[in-house]
Amino acid sequence: MDLGLDSDELVSCVACGLCLPHCPTYVISGRDAESPRGRIALMHAVQAEGAPVTDEVVRSMQTCVQCRGCETACPSGVPFGHLMEGTRAALVSAGRITGRWQRLGLAALGRPRLLRAASAGLGLLQRLRMIPSARLGLPERIPLRRPRLRASGADVLLFTGCVMDAWQRPVHRAVQRVIEAAGAGVTPTGAAAPCCGALPAHAGLERLSKSMAERVMAGLEGLGGGAGEVPVLVDSAGCGAALKDYGRLLGTEEARRFSARVFDVHEWLAPRLDRLPPVRPLEAAVAVQDPCHLRHVQRAHEPVYEVLEPFVESVATLDDDGLCCGAGGAYSVLEPERARMIRDRKLAALERSGATVVASANPGCSLHLAAAGLDVRHPLELVAQALEVPALRA
Amino acid sequence: MTGLLSRAAGRVAGRRRSRPDPLVADLVAALGPDRVQADAAARYLASRDASIFSEGTAGPVCFPASTEQVQACMRIAARHHRAVVPRGAGTGLSGGAAPLGSPVVLSMTGMNSVLEVDLDNRVAWVQPGLVNLELSRRVAAHGLHFAPDPSSQQACTIGGNVANNSGGPHCLAYGVTSAHVAAVEVVLSDGEVVVLGGLEAEPGGYDLRGAFIGSEGLCGIATAVAVRLTPNPPAVKTMLAAYPDAASAAATVGAVIADGMVPAAIELMDARAVAVIEEFARAGYPRDAGAVLLIEVDGMDGGAAIQADRVVAIASANGAASVRVAADEAERARLWKGRKNAFGAVANLEPDYYLHDTVVPRSKLAEVIEAVGEIADRHGVSVINVFHAGDGNLHPILAYDSRIEGMTERVAAAGEEIIEVSLAAGGALSGEHGIGVEKRDHMDKMFSPADLDHQNRLRQAFDPHCRMNPGKVLPSPHSCADIASLKAADGALWG
Ligand SMILES: Cc1cc2nc3c(=O)[nH]c(=O)nc-3n(C[C@H](O)[C@H](O)[C@H](O)COP(=O)(O)OP(=O)(O)OC[C@H]3O[C@@H](n4cnc5c(N)ncnc54)[C@H](O)[C@@H]3O)c2cc1C
Ligand code: SF4
Ligand code: SF4
Questions:
Q1: Is A282 helix (H, G, I), strand (E, B) or coil?
Q2: Would the pLDDT of B490 be above 60?
Q3: Which CATH number covers residue B121?
Q4: What mean pLDDT is reported for chain A?
Q5: Per-residue burial over B272-285, b = 16 or more CB atoms within 10 Å of its CB, e = otherwise
Q6: CB B116: neighbour CB atoms within 10 A?
Q7: Which of A32, B53, B71, B101 could form a disulfide with B437 if both were Cys (CB 3.0 to 4.6 A apart)?
Q8: Ligand lying nearest the CA atom of residue B397
Q9: Contacts of residue B156 in chain A, CB cutoff 8 Å?
Q10: What pLDDT, on the 0 to 100 scale, is given for residue A394?
Q11: Is residue B441 part of a domain?
Q12: Contact of B292 with B240, CB cutoff 8 Å
């Protein structure tokens, strides 16, 4: 079957195996079919050698978290994420993955009102104890009402997204407060840009993700009165990675220009830290969990440490080379057992760090880790909290 | 592989839903369904390693969790007259883990625990699936590490290191794997468990441990390994010397060793390597250099500094245009980053590479490098040289695009000629990557028929029925396996 993959990209893998220890599914299973090298070899077998798409081939692709830890580890620069998205798109077309219900669910992400209704419904079921929240990776208490976000200027746009806006609006509030403290006026994007399209792209729904991308770009055109040059700040690593990829996804000059103005909020803040008032650091031993989409995809995890440093007592780096936590967008719901096994390793690394608070810059990761009983905050929630208590000047 | 697949596909037509295989049924009964994979995808993947050799098709792939399960697999395979191939991480470069025929593959990745650490004697019993670098990480808190450091150390397993007697840049002073393994627990092909070697300084009897290390999976399966741990040196000095040509770099290597020093590592990179690596890794190598040496000395604080001064003096006396001593850990890491990324850099050049591995006497290094360049040019393939110069272990990397008609054959021809010039210079077939399939048919260039027959006899003392990793290392007719029939016998794959 033709997977429609680029032959140069496919053969750029030299099968050295150096990616193996950076792949969460290989680390927990020790199996070649659940390794980057194995997945690429199977793509090659299917596309170039006429091998049939057996159920095991499909499973091999489905079990990938799409964390792209293999990409940063690969010395030959194999664009694994791109290959996997292409493979999944071909498998969707062939009707092998991402069934109808899943497709409907993903389409709903781009429809804020439907999403809000669904979220409220889940919140109610949760309060009636009719759904196992932790097992489904849901927040402990889905909010039934959300605090309002109000524009305070148009120096920057704050991308608010879909599920995160429904469930974690307090994070957006905290982020907005920190940006404002740094002297910039913020316009939250809200319904103007409903969903970045990352989850559909991961599921292989190429058309849906493209149409979502186009909608975001159109919605943000001139939002807040800006001339289309205003930075788009993102406080969710997964969304940021998707927005930064529009240039490649849509292949237009306009999309490339749009992607160039997208920044992870920490990336934007790190060089502007001197604008924030001096504070007394929070008394908290914080460990930073590097979301894969920040570390391996955006390759921009370091600013998080820089931003946190002045605001908390101690910042620990984990010793696991940024191995995935197992959240992987919808992965924790679709592959709960693997997601848990991967998370166990992250929990062990967090335990070794001795920290009591985990800072995570991605909503999916923080939900997944919080479901294991950890105290997880967005890095800028910690900063916002520290900013509430002005330092006693010496 | 393409040919093999279509052949297999042709043969299987009409046999799609075959009866459950009794071999698989027995394996499942012994290990449980989760630990046996008999599907085409798993077998396809177990049919290859990091090399370009893949002539057979794996049979069922087992993931044993204990020595007892390995024993059970061996007994079942024997009962079904099937061969067994052990597999670590599959980073081998000579086709050692790529099966011939259709054997049962035992993937050892699940047995990856540290069983016991004895800090007083600096020995640890570990399982064979433990990753090399992971072992060093686990004992780092005690100021110890496992000295053999293959460039693949982040991925390769201790079992694979033992089987290939692997080395690495730091093996010049510290010795290769065999110098760091005190004992091995082995499951033989009939399922019996033996412990070879021992923790005491001079175990009695024959050195069967020594015979097993480097046996490439032909003598049994290592199920536990007693590794020696090395204290981290208190002081390390890393230097980069740049030369106008490879000959003066090679002369420095000889002079340093003649001076009585044994640096922890001496790595040589030729002009093409420097250019390619610098482009990719930006390690700060002088781009115009004809060759560079990366030299590391270690020891007590004062000792390392004195050695470093001497190395700098010798390098300059032998024509180094510049010598840089890394000022801090960051600079040291940057210098090594270049060396460690050499393979990746080459992979950026062309889609495929063939990493060769021969040994030549140090005194002949310069002329062999030149000959290698000439051979590659003549066959129209790119070559870069990055290697452990201290022990004369040459690693020419041939970069090419296998999609170009006839290219693979040209690379193979160049590879053979490189072997020939190495042997003609008084060298050896393989430094550290093993013989496997890759160099099997060159063994008779280095060993006499009597030598080879004796090697086969030793192997049969371990494995009388020739069931372990057959068709590897020893060429026909000195192998107990019928290699030609192994190549022909492939099971139906994508059934
Ligand atoms: C990029 C790169 C760099 C490399 N650099 C070096 C280097 O610097 N030095 C070096 O020496 N090698 C190097 N290698 C080669 C390779 O990594 C080593 O040979 C390594 O020891 C293989 O380990 P593995 O776990 O991948 O074994 P595999 O490739 O899986 O197997 C290798 C052999 O060991 C046997 N085997 C595996 N496990 C067992 C067991 N438990 N009992 C018995 N037999 C077993 C297999 O049958 C096979 O014959 C490199 C490879 C790559 C891809
Ligand atoms: S993906 Fe990269 S690191 Fe992994 S095997 Fe292929 S070339 Fe090596
Ligand atoms: S994306 Fe993540 S899970 Fe998928 S192959 Fe790469 S490292 Fe493994």
A1: strand
A2: no
A3: 3.30.465.10
A4: 91
A5: bbbbbbbebbebeb
A6: 11
A7: B53
A8: 1
A9: 17
A10: 39
A11: no
A12: yes
Residue pair B436/B216 in contact (Cβ under 8 Å)? The answer is yes
In a domain, B469, yes or no: no
Read off the pLDDT of residues B364-420 as tens digits, 9 standing for 90 and up: 888 899 899 999 999 999 898 998 988 888 899 999 988 899 998 999 999 999 999
Please check whether residue B171 lies inside any domain of the structure: yes
Task: Please give the model's pTM, rounded to 2 decimal places.
Answer: 0.91
Same domain, B98 and B79: yes
d(CA B495, CA B8): 8
User: Cα(B299)–Cα(B304) distance, rounded to whole angstroms?
Assistant: 5
Number of domains forming the structure of chain B: 3
For range A47-66, the mean pLDDT: 96
Determine the residue of A44, A68, A78 to mutate for testing ligand 2's pocket, defined as the one with the most ligand atoms within 8 A of the Cβ atom.
A78
Give the pLDDT score at A118.
78
- Report the CATH number at residue B245: 3.30.70.2190
Torsion, Cα A14 A20 A23 A24, to 10 degrees, reads 160
CA distance A212 to chain B (A): 34
Facing B155 at nearest CB: one of A17, A41, A42: A17
Q: Mind listing the domains of chain A with CATH numbers?
A: 7-93 (1.10.1060.10), 108-269 (no CATH), 278-392 (3.40.50)
For B60, the 3-state DSSP assignment is coil
Q: Can you tell me the distance from the alpha carbon of B211 to that of B188, in angstroms, rounded to the nearest whole number?
A: 14
- Residue A220 has a CB neighbour count (10 Å cut-off) of 23
Distance from A244 to chain B by nearest Cα, in Å? 24
- In this structure, the answer to whether residues B31 and B98 fall within a common structural domain is yes
**B148 and B60 within one domain:** no
**Residue B103 shares a structural domain with residue B149:** no
For residues B67 and B34, membership in a common domain is answered with yes
Check: CB of residue B190 under 8 Å from CB of residue B75. Answer: yes
Same domain as B143, residue B96: no
Q: Tell me, yes or no, whether B440 lies in a domain.
A: no
Joined together, the tokens standing for residue A316 give 């620990």
Question: Do B40 and A54 make contact, defined as CB atoms within 8 angstroms?
Answer: yes
Residue position matching structure tokens 């051979």:
B375
H helix and E strand count, chain A: 23, 8
Same domain assignment for residues B35 and B103 = yes
Q: Which domain holds residue B100?
A: 21-107
Tokens at residue A165, please?
């806006």
Gap between the Cα atoms of A165 and B395, Å rounded = 55
